[in-house]
Amino acid sequence: MKNYFKLELPTGENAYLKKSSIGLLEKSKSLIFDCDGVLIDVSDSFRTAIIKTTNWYITEIIGLGEISEDLITHEETGLFKNSGGFNNDWHLTYGVILYFVTLLLIHLKNQREKLLALVKENGDLKSKMGRLKVFGDLCRLIGFDSAKLASSRFGDWGLEDFVESLDVRGLPSAEERAIDKLVESLGVTIDQASGILEKLCLYHGTIFDFNIIKRYFEELYSGARVFENVYGIPPLFYKGNGLIDNEKLILKKEVLDTLILDLGFSRFGIASGRLRSQTLLVLQKYVNLESYFDLDSSIFLEDTMSAEDTLRNRGVNANLEKPDPYSLLTVADRINPPGQIFGYVGDTASDIIAAKRAEEQSKYSVLSIGVLCSASDIEVLIKKFLSLDADIILPSPNDLSFLFTNLEMMKNANC
What we know:
The protein is an alpha/beta fold. The chain has helices at 22-27, 46-61, 74-82, 89-106, 112-118, 125-141, 146-152, 159-164, 171-186, 190-200, 212-222, 224-231, 253-262, 276-283, 301-313, 326-335, 349-360, 378-387, 400-405, 407-413, and strands at 4-8, 14-18, 31-33, 40-41, 248-249, 269-270, 341-346, 365-371, 392-394.
């Protein structure tokens, strides 16, 4: 904390400003924003979709029965976010389900041969889902239902221990930990453990074939009409209203006006792991909001996936999602920030890591700006941002105008 100014804002909340970053802040006239948790409140959309998809997969698809509480809480999904490797909520959902399926398998160690026989065959989607029901039957035979599974996450191989063992690679590290645990607990080979998890966690493939985790997540989040508009196919599992309807704008227009009209900022870029089409649906609810952003220069999930496909066709397998700096640097190259300085505003550890990597790997000076408005535990996130050496920590992106308007006052007050 000695390297930071602690600033009391008009709201009574505190902001943290890295002393060595003052000079860059005074020169910066360009900002790139993350979307979820920064521009748009997704606390009751994407975050809820993670929880509900997990519940659905365990209770209905595996068939462990309904439960009076959620298998995982909002605070626990925040643990995955704080690990720095789960910017993608599809991956986070799979990471959670992967943990719970592994936890079930640990308790089926006396059923090793049955498990190996169960996952031996492939088959179509119907047979794959039938296999999951048989797996659920094995679990219930040893007394495991959804309620017992939920309580078991506080046991010997607890959820917090699992998340703490993960690194910034995110999902690959989660798969490695799960495989290692099965090798240890079931006495199977690495290939057998990997095969078991692949057959019991239907996440591989695309939304159009066997990836029912991603498919249900998108149907639940989008709702029937939006899902069909985005993907060109009708929903298979969920046909109600989408959680996207719960999303609201976080960043106020008057803040954007102050930054552009009074402080000379250029139009803003977006570097997001969210689909462009779904983002525009929310922004278009608010009259003229799109005009504040250079959407042609912005990067969304489908742009990143397309870049990955291009590399894959050249024989290069790469994950370009944050914390990789690809999206930030691509937007920066397009908007050409004055003085080659820009700030990146995000709400998770992966955003701060991406900003740091962007500076390390480019010609740009990058200010990492962490906001706290989506945090389930604000103090934990502040500590995480500080540990990552974030340049600025703000309660909300709406504090940006006050920050840039009062830089000189803040500097003098903390001399």
